[in-house]
Amino acid sequence: MNSNGSLSLYDLLGTQDFILRIPVAQRDYAQGRDGEKFRRQNFLHVIRDALQAGPGSLPLDLDFIYGTLEQPAYASPERPDAGPPVHHTQGASTFFSVLDGQQRLTTLFLLHWYLALKEGEGADFRSRFASCGTSRLTYNTRESARLFFDAMVQEHMLCGLWAGVAASTGMADHIRDQTWFHLAWKDDPTVAGCLTMLDDLHTSLGECGPGLYDRLTGRDGIGACITFQFLDIGAFKLTDDLYIRMNARGRSLSAFENFKAGLCGHLGVNSTGDDQFAHQLDTQWADLFWSIARQQGCAHTDEYNRLYLRFFMLMAFYRACETVTLPFDRQNREEQVYIRQLRTANDYNPPITLKNFSLFDGLTVERITRLLDYCVRHPVFTYASTSNEVPAILPSALALRTGYEVQAQLYALAGYIHAGGDPVGNPQAYQRWLRVVNNLVYNHTIDDVSAFIRICRRLGEMAEHHVDLYGWMAARPGADSEPDRSVAAPDQWHEECCKAWLIHTDPAWEAAITACEQHDYLRGRIWAVLEQSWPESARYPDRAQFIRNTALFHALLGPAILSCPRYLLQRALLTLGDYTAGKDNLCGPKHRSYSERSQNWLGVINRRDSKWQCDQSQGEGLFATLVRAVDLLLPVVPAAILVRDVKRALAAIIRKNMKAMVSRGETYHGYPCPQYWRNLMISCPQVFRYCREHRIGRDDWGHANPDIYLLSKTTYGSWHVELRTYVLYQCLKRHRRLSSIFTKINCTPVSRHGVYPTLDLTFSDGQTCHVAYRHGRFVAISGPGGKEEVTFSPMVRDMLEAYVPPECF
């Protein structure tokens, strides 16, 4: 028998005389189970696309289906597992025992049966799928399943069934109502699965026009639209013992091997494919991915297959992003789901993936070839480097749960090499290109496919101009023009073009800019430093001042100051204004991602009224003002800028402001007045310490000075206290003379909005007082968390008036 190769089920049964038999060892028909609904509907969607595809389209290939030829049961009485005897006497002298492909074959059988029923092709169907009144696809698992398939190919059933189906609401219910359907079959899981599949087939294809049966079978002269790779392992002198041993370990065929067979089959009919590509797949490229698996400490076949397959799925994802013609949000939902599945795929679903083997066109194949060949020649891209000059982008992008940023870096590297770039041969050009890529990727929120598509198109445009990247970027709009908001990361791209313009004008700028960008918080976002160094009406910034400002910014945003227990930076900024700008973020030292950086200090230092961006927020220019103030208090020599000097300068700014409070009349008995909430926070570092996640909340209540709440986490659902009562609590704790009056002082937090935190005082005589701050004044309330106001006792009022003006009660 010479049947090994790609063919349809219709052609297979037309050229061979065996019966397809599902052996006892196989499971029931699982594609019809309720739990497989999502996968089943995806499969049927792909089948419908294949049936409706026009001339010239590639057939849907369902990978390998293989098994062994066996003698019929009555010819092998010594086999105890042969199952019940099935008497096929004409034309079919052997069985083909299916070892892999049971589910796909059953679905194809049901598809042929349904379309033959729908289009009146019952006679043609029986000529291929029936022999002597019995089905040529049979289940040896249960007698009821075998009888059900035999009943489906009977002539009387095929002749009169469709009229009732067309008038009924469901295929399965109509079949169950037939006189030939035995009630006992309802309990057979294979029969139940077949009925479910037929229901979904009816839903998916019932409204389609005629001609699908001819398209499926290839009788239309174009060729069958659904094929598979048929393999008789007996022809290779392999036994099913090998399959049993492999299947026991879950190794029937790896997902990547299935994918590779389909890809090579696609390239075999695609003019861009050649033998060299298939050769590299199994030799040098295979060694490359084995080395990555070993590097990650998992030199196992499963990990090797996963990495290899993951790479090709990413390449398909990149090509899908490039071919999206409309904004991604306007694509139909199925296309959006498909592209997202490609991005995260660690496995292989042939019906879904193979429908778009067109993604592996000439451009993709060439990109893959150049990238992997380059990685083979230069393993530095595969192995982590201690110098970090050439990061191991390839294994990072293939890791589980990799973010968009790293995947964008791999896309950029593939595009750079594909465009003729040579990272090892021309390191200067590569480092320049890599610097711009990293600045764009890590200063831009890439949290969905839409943003990824935009940034990739920018990276692809850069790759085309890699030979003179800075010269090309320098010709972009200058610093006095507004950024193009239609491109990805418009602010950062505009900044990169301005920096390229400076470097292109004076190469000495390159070292200064690169040194400034090397900071955990800045990471390439240095426009604030540049602008701080730009004299009024000057064409260029002052490079000497830029170098000094770089040292200042690095010190102010360094870990020693960002983690300072006295919170010098936050308090110094509050002397100038509300740097939180209404976002209630006190800012902490978080800088792992762009989102964390932008929600903390990066958002503060870039809040400005620049030459091309206007931001009228209250916090406008505060950081720049602080930098100038600190600079005036430091030695003139840039090398003399030390962290301890910066700390002293910040402390001096705070002391100067606290003295100015007195002259402005904003203190009472030496304590900040409650209405000036920024003064309270400046004078009491403990409030920052309470806000462990660096967040506050505020309620304006129509007043100029809002009620401020100190949050232990990020929301009102966490424990929180009120600023004025908390500062008063800290003041009372500092005075030891009060220890004889109180037996307990406590600031009681609450954990929900609408309930007021209280300052709870317990006196030595047993009396208690609960103080809250509401709508701009202190009140006594009946108890912790209570809302009923009571009168202050004279003793409590006199004591509190030592810290708070009488009008605040």
Describe the 3D structure.
With 809 residues, the chain is α+β, with helices and mostly antiparallel strands. The chain folds into five domains: 5-253, no CATH class; 254-396, no CATH class; 403-505, no CATH class; 509-656, no CATH class; 667-808, no CATH class. It has a six-stranded mixed beta sheet with strand order 1-8-3-4-2-7, with helices on both faces. The protein has a five-stranded antiparallel beta sheet with strand order 14-15-16-17-18, with helices on one face. Mean pLDDT is 83; it is low at 73-92, 242-252, 269-273 and 608-619.
Over the alpha carbons, how many angstroms does the gyration radius reach?
37 Å
* Sheet with the most strands, sense and barrel status: 6 strands, mixed
Percent helix, as a range, is: 40-55%
Strand content: 5-15%
Mean pLDDT: 83
Give the helix tally: 36
Weakly predicted, low-confidence segments: 73-92, 242-252, 269-273, 608-619
Please describe the topology of this protein.
Layout (H helix, E strand, L loop, with lengths): L4 E3 L1 H7 L3 E4 L14 H16 L7 E11 L24 E6 L1 H18 L2 H8 E2 L2 E2 L1 E3 L3 H10 L2 H13 L3 H6 L12 H17 L6 H6 L8 E7 L7 H9 L6 H15 L5 H8 L1 H12 L5 H23 L9 H12 L5 H4 L8 H16 L15 H6 L5 H15 L8 H15 L7 H16 L4 H6 L15 H16 L3 H9 L9 H6 L10 H14 L2 H4 L5 H7 L19 H6 L1 H5 L16 H11 L10 H21 L3 E2 L2 E2 L4 H7 L2 H5 L5 E4 L7 E5 L8 E3 H12 L7 E7 L9 E6 L4 E7 L2 E5 L7 E2 L3 H7 L9
Helix pairs in contact: 2-8, 3-4, 3-8, 11-14, 12-13, 13-14, 14-15, 17-19, 19-21, 20-21, 24-26, 28-32, 28-33
